[in-house]
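Data deposition worksheet. Section B asks for the primary sequence of the deposited chain exactly as it was used as input, without tags or linkers unless they were present during the calculation. Section C holds the resulting structure in token form. Section D is free text for depositor observations; keep each observation to a single sentence. Incomplete worksheets are returned to the depositor.
Section A, Depositor: J.P.
Section B:
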Amino acid sequence: MAVEQAQKSAPSQYVQRSKHMPLTFKIIHGFFDLLGFLFLAWLIAVAIEWGGMILIWPEEGSGHSERMLKQELSYLNDDFSTSITGSSPAVTAFEVATLVKFYVFEWTHLIQFYEWIKEAPNNASNIRLSIARVAWQVTDFFQALMNTTLIFAVRVTVATLSMPAFLLIGTAALIDGLVQRELRIYGGGIERAMVYHHVKPWIKPAVMSTWFFYLGIPFSIHPNLIFVPAMVVFGMAIFLTSALFKKHL
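Section C:
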């Protein structure tokens, strides 16, 4: 009996501990979740680019990702003058991409290591020469890896700079929705719990799925075509959630 009671109480204790997790642990946990999300999105972006080089645009090679990088910066330079940081988004994105290139490929000596692998001495062993030949054959893929990483850094910068717009739209939608809820309470409006429960789950995916899609697509697209529809969905989801929230708690 004691064992059964311990087994029954264990899940409830786990739930209570998870609910009362300190704020610091929640912040750290959320930070690592964000890093894992970005790392997964980066892996998918690189895999898509390499797959495209093999199957879709073999004649372009790494030139496809290089052209994408120039186009991404061109969108920012032509259509966005300032950002929340006070400087041009194109300048901010370029500086972030430069830092990423330095710390990921230069500071770690990854480029130097790759060049060393390719330059095998004539008196090297057969294994060493075979590795050098393979390294020469995948040079274009290594260059595409660098370009895709820089594109990823630029897009993460753009997505981060778009978050204040999500915040403003969400705040306005929340206030408007709460006003509509008060009018519904005092006007004897009908409760629509089914609509509320169907709309509420759209709030988080409206942001996360947009990030995931934008960071992984293998072609250049104007950021407005991605984030403006997402902001509309996000605002509508928050408005309907707050407006249709139950009248009496």
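Section D:
Residues 122 and 129 are 8 Å apart (CA to CA).
The two ends are 39 Å apart (CA to CA).
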